[in-house]
UniProtKB/TrEMBL annotation:
Pathway: Lipid metabolism; phospholipid metabolism. InterPro entries: G3P_acylTferase_PlsY. This is Glycerol-3-phosphate acyltransferase. The chain crosses the membrane at residues 18-37, 66-89, 101-122, 134-156, 168-197. The keyword Ribosomal protein does not apply. Coiled coil: none annotated. The keyword Transferase applies. One of its GO terms (cellular component) is plasma membrane. Keywords: Acyltransferase, Cell membrane, Lipid biosynthesis, Lipid metabolism, Membrane, Phospholipid biosynthesis, Phospholipid metabolism, Transferase, Transmembrane, Transmembrane helix. It comes from Aurantiacibacter rhizosphaerae.
Length: 217
């Protein structure tokens, strides 16, 4: 059930919205996978496996440590801007206009930044780890639902892309079920974006050609 603070009053301003979107985008656009792979002597991660800059592709270099570090940092770049936005421009989730507040916009901005980083010609990752971070930042219960669904699907299917797609949808559903209705639009937009970015994966899944975790492209 929603906590009492979710029923308080409050209004967002244009400054809040711009700040949230901007800080989210700038944080999300830091290409940790690319930077860590280069620092670890693995070369340009964009020339390996799927060419993605996320943790799953970093794992294809054979370095579990680099992949784990990428996962944690990609998660953090979603979590931190949302927490900062909530701290500076607290917008109770129970108010109708909270969906336009700094926190949900920071969430959208972070995923957009990861997927379309300005530093890499707007060619980035697919936003799964970053979306886990923003989900935790918006409400830990949403983040928990996201993580549990990802782990369950990954365990039984051994397919990272399928786990990620199920998890992003689960986050939006969890927000609605748990009473964080104001966060549903942002998480819904993110889910649609992530699914669209996985369209090639969906095609391979339909043909039974999608690689298992730890395999190639």
């Amino acid at each position: 059930m929603p906590s009492p603070n979710k029923l308080a009053t409050g209004r967002s301003s244009n400054l809040d919205q711009i700040f949230g979107l901007l800080i989210g985008y700038l944080a999300g656009s830091i290409p940790f996978g690319l930077l860590l792979a280069k620092a670890g002597g693995m070369g340009d991660i964009r020339n390996i496996g799927s060419g993605n800059i996320g943790a799953t592709n970093v794992l294809r270099t054979g370095s579990k440590k680099l992949a784990a570090a990428t996962l944690l940092l990609d998660l953090a770049k979603g979590l931190v801007p949302v927490l900062v936005a909530k701290a500076l421009f607290d917008q109770p989730a129970g108010m109708p206009d909270a969906m336009f507040g700094a926190a949900p916009l920071a969430a959208v901005g972070a995923v957009l930044g990861h997927c379309f980083p300005i530093w890499l010609g707007f060619k980035g990752g697919k936003g799964v780890a970053t979306n886990l971070g923003v989900s935790i930042g918006l409400a830990w219960e949403i983040g928990l639902a996201y993580a549990l669904v990802w782990l369950a699907v990954a365990y039984f299917s051994r397919i990272s892309s399928l786990a990620g797609m199920c998890a992003v949808v689960a986050a939006a559903v969890a927000a609605a079920v748990l009473g964080y209705v104001a966060y549903v639009p942002a998480l819904g937009v993110i889910a649609v974006l992530v699914l669209w970015l996985h369209r090639a994966n969906i095609g391979r899944l339909s043909r039974g050609e999608e690689p298992k975790i730890g395999q190639g492209k």
